[in-house]
């Protein structure tokens, strides 16, 4: 898929548009997707993940019109760093799962329903990439932050949490579109979540096999060199973080059925 032009608001659905930040990298893919949502005849929009403190991006974002609320999917700077400046510019409050990210508004919790911009946003706490990661269901589509990307797989902090989050997303109605924090939108988010779950189970089997060869005390780096031998070495550092989460999961007495 060809990346849309940076700094150009692109309509994705009746209620959602995306402004792509010019911050491409191996971790952010084409860049951070900043989502702008507005339902019906609402006078102001909701902005999800303003991105870095990147004034070129933030000024273009402020030009889309009045903003009622800013929502953050998690604390990483490529999603949240620009929120204080953007809140000051627009006068909109900031809400997130982590209280430290909030400005002039309370944090939200799993299951909360937030009404803003002519839409109802249902909060799904979906940790795994980070402890404070959430997905936001609004207008029949779901914004996933870094929990599920538009392409490739995300870096993990806690695998047990992540597997539970995937099962939560799999339970959504089939055909629910996914609006990720990076990469192209997904036509069927539950189907993608099922693919992610199968991939994680396959990786766990590969890590188990590597431990059988290397020994149970193998380091994450040693496991990466075996399991990710055919992957570009530029991706080995994030892979090591995910392997560390997998090793912690396998070495724990987790009883989540895996």
UniProtKB/TrEMBL annotation:
Keywords of this entry: Hydrolase
InterPro entries (UniProt xref): LACTB2_WH, Metallo-B-lactamas, RibonucZ/Hydroxyglut_hydro, Sec-metab_biosynth-thioest, WH-like_DNA-bd_sf
One Pfam family of this chain: WHD_BLACT
Keyword Acyltransferase applies: no
Domain (Metallo-beta-lactamase) ranges: 31-182
Keyword hit for Transmembrane: no
Protein origin, superkingdom: Bacteria
Endpoints of the signal sequence: none
Molecular function terms from GO: hydrolase activity
Name of this protein: MBL fold metallo-hydrolase
Organism: Amycolatopsis dendrobii
């Amino acid at each position: 898929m060809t990346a849309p032009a940076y700094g150009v608001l692109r309509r994705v659905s009746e209620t959602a548009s995306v402004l792509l930040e010019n911050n491409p990298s191996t971790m952010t893919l084409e860049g951070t997707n900043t989502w702008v949502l507005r339902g019906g005849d609402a006078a102001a929009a909701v902005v999800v993940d303003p991105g870095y403190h990147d004034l070129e991006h933030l000024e273009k974002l402020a030009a889309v019109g009045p903003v009622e609320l800013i929502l953050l999917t998690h604390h990483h700077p490529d999603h949240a760093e620009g929120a204080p400046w953007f809140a000051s510019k627009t006068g909109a409050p900031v809400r997130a799962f982590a209280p430290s990210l909030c400005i002039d508004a309370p944090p939200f919790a799993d299951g909360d329903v937030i009404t803003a911009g002519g839409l109802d946003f249902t909060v799904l706490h979906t940790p795994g990439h980070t402890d404070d990661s959430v997905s936001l269901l609004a207008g029949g589509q779901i914004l996933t932050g870094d929990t599920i990307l538009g392409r490739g797989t995300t870096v993990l902090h806690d695998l047990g949490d992540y597997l539970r989050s995937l099962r939560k997303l799999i339970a959504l109605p089939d055909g629910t579109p996914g609006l990720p924090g990076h990469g192209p939108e997904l036509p069927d988010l539950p189907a993608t979540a099922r693919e992610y779950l199968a991939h994680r189970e396959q990786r766990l089997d590969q890590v188990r096999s590597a431990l059988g060869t290397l020994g149970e005390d193998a380091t994450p780096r040693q496991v990466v060199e075996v399991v990710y031998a055919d992957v570009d070495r530029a991706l080995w550092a994030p892979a090591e973080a995910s392997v560390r989460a997998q090793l912690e999961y396998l070495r724990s007495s987790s009883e989540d059925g895996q």
